[in-house]
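Supplementary Methods S3. Input chains for the assembly prediction are listed below.
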Amino acid sequence: MSILLNQNSKVIVQGITGRDGSFHTRQMLSYGTKVVGGVTPGKGGQEVSGVPVFNTVAQAKEKTTADTAVIYVPAKFAKDAMLEDIKAGINLIICITEGVPVLDMVEVMGALKGTGIRLVGPNCPGVISPGKSKVGIMPGHIHKPGPIGIISRSGTLTYEVVYSLTYHGVGQSTCVGLGGDPIIGTRFVDVLEMFMRDDQTKGIVMVGEIGGEDEQVAAGYLKKEATKPVVGFIAGRTAPPGKRMGHAGAIISSGTSTAEAKRTVLKEAGVVVVDFPEEIPAVFKEKLGECLHGEKRS
Amino acid sequence: MKIHEYQATELFQKAGVAVVSGQVATDVREALRVAESIGYPVVLKSQVLVGGRGKAGGIKKVNTPEELTTAFAQLKALKIKDYPVEKVLVVRAVAIKREFYIGMTVDTSRNDVVLIASAAGGVDIEETAQKDPQAIKKYYLEGNQQLVGKKWQSFIESVFDDPHYQVKGAEIFRGLIKVFFAYDCSLAEINPLVIDDKGQMYAADAKINFDDNALFRHEDVAALRDIRYEEPDEMEAKKHGLSFVRLDGNVGCIVNGAGLAMATMDIVNLSGGAPANFLDVGGSSNPEKVVHALRIILNNKKVKAVLINIFGGITRCDDIARGLVEARTKLNLSVPLVVRLIGTNEEEAKALLAQHNIRTYPTMREAISQVVAIANQ
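Predicted structure tokens for the full assembly:
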């Protein structure tokens, strides 16, 4: 099994009639994702690439029994889109939108509390379980089904890691883009727990960056609970303090938010921290050996 | 985004927070008039958006118009961390009996808004946090802005021992909350909050930072941006949808995606080079963006070579390639380009670049060794 997404996941696209929403709906469909509906208020009754459009998430869920929603709406509408999913009881919400105000996220996180609903993002590339389902904006063709789970705060840097793994014949179970914002629905520890329990996943890659303390929290968890090898890469070793590096959450604001501080705590927790993304496949080849080719069981 | 103390004071005052009487002045005549109306002694406070103005001599107490004239001229001649003093806030000098710290921010690790207070005010709160963490009290809103109940009561009592000031303090916290949510602040701070010799409580300083992502719904706040504190290149980049940060090295970098852009800088560094900048061209880049990116990078005369590292997802490699070709004709490029493109429409991109004799490298490592070798020549 993979985590979060599988071949049965039924997906609705919020903002499906927009430029990004319609483009990525086509991409997801061609990957084999079960996109069962779309939502754009006022455009119910239309179709995008053969996918029916609804006015509300509640209507879309009722007609399609969707369990997953992906959000491509502009930042100023993202909060309402997420709140609508929570109200409708969508199990998994993946928010791609970049630039959502922090206080909007505080409100969304408050609404999520106690519901059991999982939010991934915002400001993330999405989630892919290779060969099964892709929900987001990542290029599907660079992935390959296999035993490595990937968790990342970045988009294109994750592609780099995936590309290198696939190039060396090492496939992936699920790749989760957490997002580059300071408040995100799912953090390293949440996904580490899922990967530790997942049969298909034999090894894990964590791609972190400067800002916040999520890598430290993850290190604390791994110290006690790790049952599978974890490889880490942290971006931003040359980033100057006090400057926001593209991502809203990527800023060195204290001694603990530097790349070196994160590399150190991860190493102390038994994580193999590499300097170059292309070193990752060799680490797994050494640590996992034959297990790497066990993906046929899934 | 940051604003000046006098602007933050005004926002707090509008929300019902008691503040020290005063007014901002740009020239000495204005300052004399303000001092006249509030009465001597007054304090002159340099308005700068960097910390450490007190230590830099940016705050002066004066007793007479003559003293004010001299002190004002000194402040105007001052540079605080390279920034000249343009405006001076003139406030009534107060006899401080007690000082507190109160502030409000988003605790991103807990996804919640937190009120922070300390009875040890007037000093740097981060210093207090290091030396005496017990002295810092926190109250998490947990979705409730009402400030009632047992938890609230015990918080306010832990900060102010006198019931009279517990009531006054709660009023000031309510004002803080009002401002924080009305303007999408990332930080709202009063340090110090003072009690004077007459027993009055008010804000003797004010600091507000805003969430850049929320400025779209606060045009009035966005208009307060003091552009003297912005790097011109960063502003220019932002205008074109690019994210740019200037660094000290000589290897220019154009990358798509913030994480990959940081990783590229790091690997340039590990390979013996020094990155000249962080630059994320963002997703769905059109050729024009590449031209702007190159132009901004080449404003920096230290740059000896430019690395283009693209992993095409939403970004199409052929768009980047077209941009590079266009830039070569438009910009009269004085330095070599080292290009690595992979992903969406890679083949089209490589064919186009080959036509224009621009070589491409298959991996990030190879491209980086090449660009570092050129820059270090």
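The radius of gyration of chain B is 26 Å. Residues 163-182 of chain B form the longest helix (20 residues).
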